[in-house]
Design goal:
alpha+beta; two-stranded parallel sheet; 2 strands; about 25% helix; flat
Length: about 100
């Protein structure tokens, strides 16, 4: 049986962009896959990062918008996957 798993799709493209900068993937195919997936819509995210500037958007060597990529990835992990945010070692977990 098909198993529905959460999906996070990301791309440097936006539908409005006339000339795609990412020659590795097809945004239309990613959208088609997302729409036909057995995964419920609330467990899927398609996020565009038009300022990232390259295919490997998670690389601090290649991405020009790494902070946005991190923020949206963490947001997906917290909201959809229900993962807890960990505090760095030594940081207080209590509030004053």
């Amino acid at each position: 049986p098909d198993r529905a798993l959460p999906h996070f799709y990301s791309s440097i493209l936006e539908k409005k962009v006339a000339s795609p900068r990412d020659q590795v993937i097809s945004i239309d195919e990613i959208q088609r896959f997302a729409e036909t997936s057995a995964t419920p819509a609330d467990q899927r995210r398609l996020v565009a990062f038009p300022e990232a500037g390259g295919h490997i958007i998670t690389s601090d060597l290649q991405s020009k918008d790494l902070e946005s990529v991190r923020r949206e990835t963490y947001k997906f992990a917290e909201e959809v996957l229900k993962l807890a945010v960990l505090k760095p070692v030594g940081e207080s977990t209590t509030t004053n």
